[in-house]
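Replying to the earlier thread about multi-chain prediction with a worked example.

Input:
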Amino acid sequence: MKSHWQRGINFKEASIFGQGSDGRSGYDLPSNGLPQADIGSLLPEDLVRQDLTGFPSLTEPEVIRHYTRMSQWNFSVDTNMYPLGSCTMKHNPRVNEAVSRLAGFTNLHPLQDDDQAQGTLKLMSDLARWLCEITGLYSATLQPVAGAQGEFAGLMMIRAALEKRGAARSKILLPDSSHGTNPASAVRCGYKPVTFKSGPDGKIDIDELDRLMDDQTSALMVTNPNTLGFFESGILEASKLIHDRGGFVYCDGANLNALMGKARFGDMGVDVAHINLHKTFSTPHGGGGPGAGPVCVTKELEPFLPSPVIVHENGVYRRDYDRPQSVGRMSGFHGAVGVLIRAAAYILSMGADGLKQATEAAVINANYIKARLKDHYHSPYPGRSMHELVLSDKIQNEHGVTTLDIAKALIDRGFHPPTIYFPLIAKGAIMIEPTETESRETLDDFCDAMIDIAEKAVSDSGSLHKAPENTARNRLDETAAARNPQLRCDSCG
Amino acid sequence: MKFPEDLRFSKGHEWVSVADDVATIGITDFAQDELGDIVFVEAPEIGATLTQGEAFGVAESVKTVSDVYCPVAGEVVEINSGLVDKPELVNKSPYQDGWMIKVKISDLSALDELMSAKEYENYVLKSK
Amino acid sequence: MRFIPLTDSDRSEMLEKIGVSSVSELFADIPEQIRLYDPLNLPGPEPELDLMERFEELAGENQALNPRKSFLGAGAYLHHVPVAVDQLLLRSEFFTCYTPYQPEVSQGTLAAIYEFQTYTAALTGMEIANASMYDGASALAEAVIMSARIKKKPKVIVSGLVHPHWREVTAAYTRTLDIDLVTVDTGLERGVTDSAQLAIDDTTAAVVVQSPNFLGNIEDLREIRSACDSVGALMIVAVAEPVSLGLLKGPGHFGADVAVAEGRSFGGSLSFGGPGLGMFAVNKEYVRQMPGRLAGKTKDTQGREGYTLTLSTREQHIRREKATSNICSNQALCATAAVIHMSLLGKDGLRKLAIQNLSAAAYLSRRVTSLNGFERISGAHFFNEVAINMPVDPQVVNSRLAKEGIQGGLDLSEYYPELKSSMLFCATEMNTKKSIDQLVSVLAEFEK
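Result:
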């Protein structure tokens, strides 16, 4: 097993508050030829801040050093494999960064007239069309800036459609494997989430749907492939049942990386799906955001799209605000446009064939890991994994080793841990999603590390409880952080 | 794991100790063990009226949060303010210093529906 | 395909190890009738250079602003972001990492979030802040929902001088909830919200104002606070231009219960309005009611100081349907850019930047209102935006300005039909005396 850790240049770095010295600044005001105004004549004293107490005073070199050192404490996709299940930590192409930074895009104000924004409007219009082509749906909104916001927008559109049919209904059905945002978004739309048990195969149990789907249920929220990484093979039957009883099918598109060019949500009977551009379409995760969560819908739901909608008429692109049935505005302006530009660049870089290859490679990679680890880790559900697989700590439990220990031990071996303890229906879940941008060699390294951990669980479990030891910080006291929250530096402000 | 003989227990893993018509309520040793290090306990207002089985607050640990239910109906007459600064008392002493609320019972027959220590112990063993 | 390492020989060896003869077996769970055989109808693939050329062409089809000669604000403000910000942001470890769920290997991101929480709280004058929300508009929506929940009352009153888009987003977010969102139009003449007209009563959970407001004027937060106190309502203050907080006292100073802001001015670019950066701050008593992520300081097993995400049980991945919000992400990279920018500005720079904004707007206001027929809508105090009545259709003015390469202000009638002939001008540190003088000379053509 290759060892990834070695001593490098990695500095201690204190909080920025408390560094520097009065009189220093890392910023020069642009010249503007104007005299500084007399504040006293413009603002009454009681409105004016006396001082920015505790704000640092640092020059450019000091600030750059601070953030450079801080950055060195972060693991990233560019460092090594980051197999977080359902997050799709694929490589972030650099050309995306270059094109999104063109001044023609960055200096465009959201309130400029349509005729001044034809480049960006065209790009957004094209992106919407491509996402519909990929998902097999009719129309899209690019406004939601995150998957969760996309869920909210999508469910609001379902609600609007049901109100138009006569009754909004009151409940939403969700499998117990669903992501936490699903029931939270449902509540935000005024719906009561009704969770049903998945079958013994970890997939939707059609009998449960049959039992629960009634004329008070607005929709079924699915994830396909689901959070166990399995394709919901009964999706056509499930969609038909829901539609026959007057409901809609919402699909959480987080796992779209398993389906590009292979199957489409629209063909599965899905009416609304959100897509996570920061997952499937390579836009950077950035430490937790910004993302984007466009929503694609069927023709019936098109009138309810958030306003404005970008339309293309007579060779000109414009924002259409005349949308009387719209569910409203989701975003301060037009969505996470900088993120949309990156996603569009990705789709163009890949083309249809590239996207399909990405999906196939993602699925091959996940299944390769599954094959190499099957004799060492317990698989809580039988079934064909797609782009991600879920293992558990059942075997290691016999030696007092938990999923948490396995995760921390992986850090010591140079890997970011997979997603742990999710989905809830797999006890001690370890959800591994390699993505297509990992090489075979890296996958082998990862499997070697996992096998080493499984062996240590038997021979030297103590070492696993102490992990990680190679990092700048060891396990952090989360209990103390929650009991006595210290959420800011008190000396500043 | 402790199951004090003088207490009564609910299926929701709360314990009840009765003196006259006042019930002292908390969560069991099993419950605190399952939750892990408790970081926060949310309590109701004094004077609040609770129905049997109504959630009166939450017990929050780092990784989970659990509703706490009132096994008897009545009026909240006292809450354990010590838990504000020291929520860990629930872990260290779930049956004494970690008590949560005191309720003036409005319907004493509710006590008959609770389990004895032995019954609760069996219940816990079966659920594992 | 330069992003996919698997070679043909890799594939065949791996398929053998997996135990299948072809990759299509791995997709066998997809029902036959929905399997795709034809390729998707998409353009590309484009090699890198071709892609860059195509995007340069597209960018060229925009008429982006000349930063020195633009006077358009209204919720998106042109500032100079120091070059060092973007260069630091492009460090792999900042932009290709994920949410810091494993704190041992995410101390860089967590430290940046902690800085952001500190700066947000300090600037707004509140006790604590979260790790950021999507944008100012959705932060306001979340603040409204939180306030109704805290007060257990249904009514939330919003001043009509709050940014129209923020009000729309809040309305969309609260449509199906038991919240009675009431917009009260007051103050188009006064230029600031008239608290006496807000119709606050004992069903009111909260009152929302923006300061500086959409017309650019600084609200009398003391008056609003007083009005809220009469029924024990929460005061929510929205800030669309946080650069103002370098010079103005923050909402917390005036007793705000919640402060929300759009942080794009720090570290961000206009980019047609997104991504944004929501700032959300409260006082300590509401920490468990607050949505969004939080980073907290703690120690590791060796007693060394570090950071971790905390109070996660409020969030959707644990609390699910009882969560404070459905929000899963934060704008971490935008927040990182913001803290780098603010750290470069520092104590002196933040104040000087704000003063320069005020100076530019004051100069613009003085010169424009010296023209016959051009006057401020009200005499209220402003920061970097002024609303001006003019003796000509603003659209005509903007067309004329465009011919000089100048982006004029916002035609206010788009949002306030009563303001038929008014424009909202913004001036920041980017606008020069020369460009303001040029603006004025064009406006002079329309003097009465």
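DSSP finds 15 helices and twelve strands in chain A.

Feel free to reuse this layout for your own posts.
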